[in-house]
Task: inverse folding
């Protein structure tokens, strides 16, 4: 600090510019809800405060939406078969969960959003169908004539084919774009999906083909005086059983040394390579597992509808599965399962409401629309999902 007098005799005190600015900066308070940057200045409001501000500013619209949903549920409770909605929602949600598990697994292990996940399931389903018909594209399959052993054997072949196809996509497309922008890999996988759909249309044409279910018949949960009050297809129980086994298997995988290597490769590929872990091998493993999951979803999903059409898994299951993965958290296996079931319940409820109140002609594809609404709400309120965190 220096003291001088100007020409008028007034005393002037001056400080070093750097120290003055530093003292001034240090004296500035940081507003609550703002993150302080490395320079000591507030960098902006946190996500939580942004969401709170959004809800506060639009509280009337949010309240109206909540009241509307409650009113719809109350009005529909007497007319909608709640038990049927739950059964259907959990069943289709299990297929969503299987596809979402593959999406989350690839993203958690390689940081790639795989838009080809749907067709990695449709192609193996068509392979199983061709194996059952002796590669006769004109044949009409009779599900009653297919033995369980034969179907399960061919399904295993389909799962293996899905894994091989996924590894091929990773090797020939994704790994070649490893240094590119992540958006480039996303667009490339979408291109692969469209290519596979185009191939299916050329070979099988745009027509639905009968696809067998693993188990025929139905299972009754609740019986009444007038017969069965709540039932489901036996095939749906197979879907749920497979999902439980797959989810448990993946949970165990990430507790092993191999699972740790997968996560290490995703976080620090160079450091993992220094410890003898091959990033390419781990990437192929993750994609192979995701391809197997996609094939399972494709075979069981085609059985759910008892029919198979080109692009089935992309047009029917991919968007809800992505919504499930985002809802649960893109890096969470548990989140993918929970998200899949929740999205399945929402989709089943939307379909039941539209059917009960005659809105199917006004609202096209209510389950898909409901999935988009859920996705939008999750991105606005909790972008990292219910269980999301860094791998």
Result:
């Amino acid at each position: 600090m220096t003291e001088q007098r100007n020409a008028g005799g007034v005393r002037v005190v001056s400080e070093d510019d750097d120290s003055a600015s530093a003292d001034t900066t240090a004296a500035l308070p940081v507003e609550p809800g703002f993150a302080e940057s490395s320079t000591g200045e507030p960098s902006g409001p946190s996500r939580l405060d942004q969401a709170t501000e959004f809800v506060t500013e639009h509280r009337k619209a949010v309240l109206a939406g909540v009241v509307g949903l409650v009113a719809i549920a109350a009005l529909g409770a007497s007319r909608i078969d709640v038990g049927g909605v739950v059964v259907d929602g959990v069943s289709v949600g299990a297929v969503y969960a299987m596809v979402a598990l593959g999406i989350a697994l690839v993203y958690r292990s390689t940081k790639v959003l795989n838009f080809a996940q749907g067709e990695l399931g449709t192609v193996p389903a068509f392979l199983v169908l061709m194996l059952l018909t002796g590669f006769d594209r004109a044949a009409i399959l009779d599900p009653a004539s297919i033995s369980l052993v034969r179907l399960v054997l061919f399904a295993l072949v389909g799962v293996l084919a899905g894994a091989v196809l996924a590894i091929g996509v990773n090797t020939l497309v994704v790994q070649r774009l490893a240094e590119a922008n992540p958006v480039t890999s996303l667009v490339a996988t979408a291109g692969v999906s469209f290519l596979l759909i185009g191939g299916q249309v050329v070979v099988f044409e745009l027509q639905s083909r009968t696809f067998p279910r693993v188990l025929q018949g139905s299972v009754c949960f609740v019986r009444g005086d007038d017969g069965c009050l709540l039932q489901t297809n036996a095939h749906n129980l197979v879907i749920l059983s497979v999902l439980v086994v797959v989810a448990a298997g993946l949970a165990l995988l990430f507790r092993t040394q191999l699972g740790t290597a997968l996560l290490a490769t995703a976080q620090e590929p160079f450091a993992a390579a220094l410890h003898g872990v091959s990033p390419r091998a781990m990437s192929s493993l993750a994609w192979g597992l995701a391809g197997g999951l996609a094939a399972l979803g494709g075979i069981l999903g085609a059985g759910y509808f008892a029919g198979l059409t080109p692009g089935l898994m992309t047009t029917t299951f991919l968007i809800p599965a992505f919504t499930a993965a985002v809802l649960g958290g893109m890096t969470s296996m548990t989140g993918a399962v929970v998200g899949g079931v929740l999205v399945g319940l929402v989709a089943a409820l939307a379909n039941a409401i539209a059917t009960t109140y005659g809105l199917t002609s006004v609202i096209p594809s209510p389950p898909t629309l409901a999935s988009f609404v859920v996705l939008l709400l999750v991105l606005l309120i909790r972008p990292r999902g219910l269980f999301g965190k860094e791998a």
About this structure: Residues 76 and 353 are 7 Å apart (CA to CA). The first strand starts at residue 2 and ends at 5. The chain is about 65% helix and 10% strand.
